[in-house]
Fold:
Amino acid sequence: MIKRAFRIPILIRSIALSGMATFPSAPALAAEPGDGAITGLSSLIQAGGPIMYPIVGLALVAIGVAVVKAVQFFRIGVGTTTSVQKALDLVRRHEPDRAVQELEKRKEPVAKVAAAAIRGKLNPRMEDQLVREEVSRVAQAQLDGLERGLAFLSLVAMIEPLMGLLGTVFGLIQAFQEIQAAGTRVEPSTLAGGIWQALLTTAAGLSAAIPVAIAYTWLQRVVDVEAQRMEDAATQVFTADLFDAVETSEVAAPPAGTGASLPGDELVSAEAAE
Structure:
């Protein structure tokens, strides 16, 4: 946690330095009346007005959160199931203690849920319902850790376009006030300049919301898939005894067509011979 906290400011500074590529380039927009073309992010923010500061600031923070979550998922092995599957195979081979030892070495959320299920099954004092409740508690704790920060991304993706629209409304109000003050001596260039400056905030809000929405959708999908894997691993632990019973009954039952006799068949044959 400490190492990650030191890396977040570095990440945000690096994003801020490359932020000029986030928005449309200067010539693609227009020329600022009296100042020439917009040449960078700072001039873009100044042209858009005060509402641009929260739009850009929230976008940079949201991108930083998305990168941190992606690194977190990679470090704890979200999406990997090889080690968990090996442990489940040990459970089927009646080696649950060894399976727990293997799972406790892993960081994957699925491994922690599977380990909790196996430990519960090994405890003779815990009823099956109590084991399931404990597994649900562990799974929910793991999901809470994975979903931490995703609500912020969803919020940013939702409010960025609204903030951009709000800035556009304020910009148009100001532009029409200037037109009214100028009376009949309104230059078309002045009118056009006021309108495009007002539209800058809408473009900025949409440009910020799109990548954040994509990041949120992808991260949430990863969490949903991981939750399904947790449920599948716990189910395999709970049904391991059932599979053993099925295999035992298949071995005990005589194969069809082999001519194996039942206990009463010999008595019936003897009576028929008499």
